[in-house]
Amino acid sequence: MPLTASRPLPCPAGPRTTLLGLALALASSLAACGESRPASAPTAPSPLEGMYQTSSFLQTMTNELDVVFMVDNSASMAPLQVKLASGLASFVDQLKGLPGGLPDLHLGVISSDMGAGPFSVPSCQRPGGDQGAFRGSFLIDGIDSLTGQRTPNFSGDLTDVFSHTVTLGQNGCGFESPFGSVQAALGTDAPAGNAGFLRPNAALLVVLFTNEDDCSMPAGSDLADPNNETYGALQSYRCTELGIVCDQGKPPHLAPDSPVTYTGCHSAEDPLLARVADFVTFLKGLKADPGKVFLTAIAPPATGNLTFQANTLGGVTTPNLAHVCPTVSADSAIRIKQAVDAFGDHGSYQDICGDDWSPALSGIGRLAASAMGPTCLPGPVMRAQDGTPTCRLVDKGPGTANAELASCGATNGVAPCWEIEADDSCAGGEKVVVRRAGDGGPPPGVQTSMACTICRPGATVPGCV
Questions:
Q1: Number of domains observed in the structure of the chain
Q2: What confidence tens digit (pLDDT) does each residue in 168-189 have?
Q3: Of 289, 358, 285, 383, whose CA–CA distance to 41 is shortest?
Q4: Residue range 313-338, pLDDT digits in tens
Q5: Helix, strand, coil % (nearest 5) of the chain?
Q6: Are residues 346 and 423 in the same domain?
Q7: Are 343 and 449 part of one and the same domain?
């Protein structure tokens, strides 16, 4: 049953020094003691260090979503891109099914081709590759902040146009660079055509679609140097040998006589390859609130175990990874899985094996939609003596004059209003739900800021029992 405020909290009668008085004073800072004051961005009550249970929690709910699909365009990927295109309706339908309909959307597609550093190798003829440039331009299906009307920059159905955009072909560099491409697309030196894609208040979803692991090379790396024979044959196995470490040590440099499996494999964080930790830090740093960033992947299974075997081509025998899918040519993506795992419940790793990726794309769509819907709280909300949750929500944007939203208890359920609901799927067991007229989303261009005081685990004082 929803837990809501029933009435404004009165001012405490004079100074109090008890815990109850402290809780009342804390709650009264939110209720403003009945005085009129401008409803600026909400400020969570300041925790009283060493006294009791509070911690600040501030988050902004949004109806803006920026989506980047990184699509591997190396050899053998064309058939997989066609399958990806056929399943994209499942992703878009999740966004269209939101209470307010399709969010204000920016959608860009980039390739995995960042070249081979300064070197020219058979599959990497273009120095620098695509440098994270969006294919053609990024798609905009936005909402005019004044009229509320959608203003797409394309003709036709979004799913059809998007599906056409992801079919990049398979002439890209064989040293696939998903991490490097995403950083080039969204970084400070992004291509001119990418300008305006990344919006400060929008949630960001990055999707990595590839059949191999990341082999992004930082400036100065000579991993792809065709004349460096100490790195072995000029093939993507170099990325595994130099970029992964396992319980048994580094992957074999020479071809084994028979298949051998290594366990506990993870990124070596070697300077010849971009560090997974640096990529994660980069993505989370794109937003003032890292909770707005989601990283997902459709990639080969990555259990931490790698099987190595001999591969003979043109009379030359080299070590190689055993494929991990029965019907799809795919090698375990240890580094990509490690990056996705760093995002916790804001990450999703989907298996590229199989013939239908609609369920995987639907799951990624649901994850993106979660950024638009009710907001999970990191713990139970502190409540005043009358049950009032210590939260403030403020609409900021065109025509709102920074309007503070009342609780649904205070408005007798008349929207717009907010309430706290129990939700076992949230880590803290509760979520904030904003009710809008007609069950729609926030008005065009409006962001909803939220500040709550969260009970510290194990607290047994008034308001946190």
A1: 2
A2: 999 999 999 999 999 999 999 9
A3: 289
A4: 878 899 999 999 998 899 999 999 99
A5: 20, 25, 50
A6: no
A7: no
